[in-house]
């Protein structure tokens, strides 16, 4: 509705909502804010992010067919990229859960994300800050970040699929050949 001009919402609150949703997601990773309701909250936040994109498309004054094609392409592209990122991140994440300090690492990463999101939120509310600029500049290195993620996935996959038993060191991957 927004992209077709049927919903007139100022861009600033929508962009601030997007940054806020990332902040809430980061806080939720540290301490669950809405346990059991993640799918609903993710859906609402996803609609907010989609609204932000549709406002950008509406500003371009595209024809109806161009707009429909752009929306379809964006949504398909986002879904495909999310699938790629999950496939690349999952082996590393499984490995990380097997580390003794995985909770501290998860909290540190979520904290870093929360700081970036807070910087973005302040920036969207009109308060320029170096945190938002630094977080935005990280987006210019997507190829390098994907390469690191892919390398970590390749290195983590053997450990991910190997049998593990934290309580019994003889069943760990290092001792699997002795069992």
List keywords for this structure.
disordered C terminus; 72% helix; 179 residues; mainly alpha; 0% strand
Description:
By secondary structure, the protein is an all-alpha fold. It is built from 6 helices and no strands. Helix 1 runs antiparallel to helix 4 and helix 3 (64-97) packs across helix 6 (142-161). The chain is globular, with a radius of gyration of 20 Å. 10% of the residues are buried. Residues 169-179 have low confidence and may be disordered.
What's the shape? globular
User: What's the number of helices?
Assistant: 6
Tell me the number of strands. Answer: 0
Q: What order do the SSEs take from the amino end to the carboxyl end, as H and E? A: HHHHHH
Structural class: mainly alpha
End-to-end gap: 61 Å
Beta-strand share of residues:
under 5%
Q: State the low-pLDDT regions, or none.
A: 169-179
Mean pLDDT level = 82
**Rounded Rg:** 20 Å
User: What percent of residues adopt helix (DSSP H or I)?
Assistant: over 70%
Please outline the major beta sheet: none
């Amino acid at each position: 509705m927004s992209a077709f001009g049927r919903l007139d919402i100022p861009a600033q609150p929508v962009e601030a909502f997007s940054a806020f949703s990332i902040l809430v997601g980061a806080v939720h990773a540290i301490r669950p804010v809405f346990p059991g309701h993640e799918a609903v909250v993710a859906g609402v936040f996803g609609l907010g992010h989609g609204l932000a994109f549709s406002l950008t498309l509406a500003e371009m004054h595209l024809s109806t067919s161009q707009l429909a094609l752009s929306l379809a392409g964006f949504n398909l592209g986002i879904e495909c990229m999310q699938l790629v990122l999950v496939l690349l991140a999952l082996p590393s994440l499984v490995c990380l859960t097997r580390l003794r300090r995985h909770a501290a690492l998860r909290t540190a990463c979520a904290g870093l994300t929360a700081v970036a999101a807070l910087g973005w939120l302040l920036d969207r509310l009109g308060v320029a800050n170096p945190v938002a600029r630094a977080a935005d500049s990280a987006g210019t290195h997507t190829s390098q970040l994907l390469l690191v993620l892919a390398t970590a996935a390749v290195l983590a996959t053997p450990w991910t699929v190997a049998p593990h038993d934290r309580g019994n060191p003889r069943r760990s991957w290092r001792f699997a050949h002795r069992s």
